[in-house]
Amino acid sequence: MRHxxxxxxxxxxxxxxxxxxxxxxxxxxxxELAAQVGTLDRVWVSPYLxxxxxxxxxxxxxxxxxLVQTMAEITPHGxxxxxxxxxxxxxxxxxxxxxLIISHLPLVGYLAATLVPEIQPPMxxxxxxxxxxxxxxxxxxxxxxxxxxxxxx
Length: 153
Known about the structure:
Number of helices: 4
Protein name: Phosphohistidine phosphatase SixA
CATH superfamily: Phosphoglycerate mutase-like
CATH architecture: 3-Layer(aba) Sandwich
GO molecular function: hydrolase activity
Distance between the termini: 22 Å
Order of helices and strands: HEHEHEHEE
Strand order of the largest sheet: 2-1-3
Structural class: alpha/beta
CATH class: Alpha Beta
Enzyme class: hydrolase
EC number: 3.1.3.-
Largest sheet: 3 strands, parallel
Keywords: Hydrolase
Radius of gyration: 14 Å
């Protein structure tokens, strides 16, 4: 998931908060997806304020995860190969089946293309969510769906 719409200016990029619209669009997209989520073993959230606020906005909509972690590796300029290897290793060691990652462009697009080599890095609108079924043995995923947040009416 990419975080919701954020304000343009703050003392630093890491401190940019969500707008009210960004909070709303995140809640709306997760309300539509909540029935598809089932269980949620892990949540990894970027330490940037807008990603943390996105998680806070959607947490009550989703099944309670077994573990929520703030991950320094998933900031906007994180390395997609490092994150993919961390994801693979964590799933193998900890044995979890499902994870929600709340991060940023360009990382989420590059990570998706790393996990599903047949696709080009997708553009993630704010609050959009992409689902991947990942095979740990084959070390590759299949794109299931890409959900975009609804527009305000």
